[in-house]
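wait is this the right file?? whatever heres the structure
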């Protein structure tokens, strides 16, 4: 599969890139600073630019079968994810591909959610104390939900570093997870599983590393 990857220099994005190459995919990455790109086991196609620039996004998507975003939050650009989503939807609607999988957050609420009392309380706190950066995630969701494309927004809880687990991940389209954290390597693996297997199209699944 030919994957266009956004956020490849971030802590989660680097793991997505490594795993995608390990699985044999051809990967193109969009980066602002190619010097921050970690050494890879196989060659990747590098597009210099920003996801906020429509022309850069169009160049990234050329010839791709799916788009993956591991773009992290930034206080410098509080509407980064919504802007990125609009640029991606415009380019994908005109030229393809149709498939998108991105990383969002368990703190946002979407129709059909069945959150536990604790998860609901955490979401409430995040939405009221998180500032403009947190508001960007629901705005991103709204763009994808109205896009008509084959999108998935994965909603992890707290991200932690560590070795990927060996068991099945806890994930569901609407029911919040019992675990309140996910190992980044597990998240990277799950994102690629969703891409490869066509899982959770048109939904925003929760995912976490099981307690144990």
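ok assuming it is, sequence goes like this
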């Amino acid at each position: 599969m030919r994957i266009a990857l956004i956020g490849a220099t971030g802590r989660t994005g680097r793991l997505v890139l490594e795993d995608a190459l390990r699985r044999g995919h051809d990967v193109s990455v969009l980066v602002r600073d190619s010097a921050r790109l970690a050494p890879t086991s196989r060659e990747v196609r590098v597009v210099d630019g920003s996801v906020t620039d429509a022309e850069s996004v169009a160049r990234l998507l050329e010839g791709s079968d799916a788009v993956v975003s591991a773009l992290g939050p930034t206080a410098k650009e509080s509407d980064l994810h919504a802007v990125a989503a609009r640029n991606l939807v415009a380019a994908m609607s005109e030229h393809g591909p149709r498939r998108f999988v991105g990383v969002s957050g368990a703190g946002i609420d979407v129709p059909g959610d069945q959150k536990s009392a604790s998860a609901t309380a955490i979401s409430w706190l995040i939405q009221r104390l998180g500032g403009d950066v947190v508001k960007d995630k629901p705005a991103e969701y709204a763009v994808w939900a109205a896009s008509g494309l084959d999108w998935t927004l994965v909603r992890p809880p707290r991200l932690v570093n560590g070795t990927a687990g060996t068991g099945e991940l806890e994930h569901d389209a609407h029911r919040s997870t019992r675990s309140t954290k996910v190992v980044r390597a597990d998240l990277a693996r799950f994102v690629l599983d969703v891409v490869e297997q066509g899982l959770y199209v048109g939904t925003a699944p929760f995912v976490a590393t099981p307690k144990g």
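The beta strands are 2-6, 26-31, 45-48, 66-69, 99-103, 150-154, 158-160, 170-172, 181-183, 206-208. so i think its the right one actually
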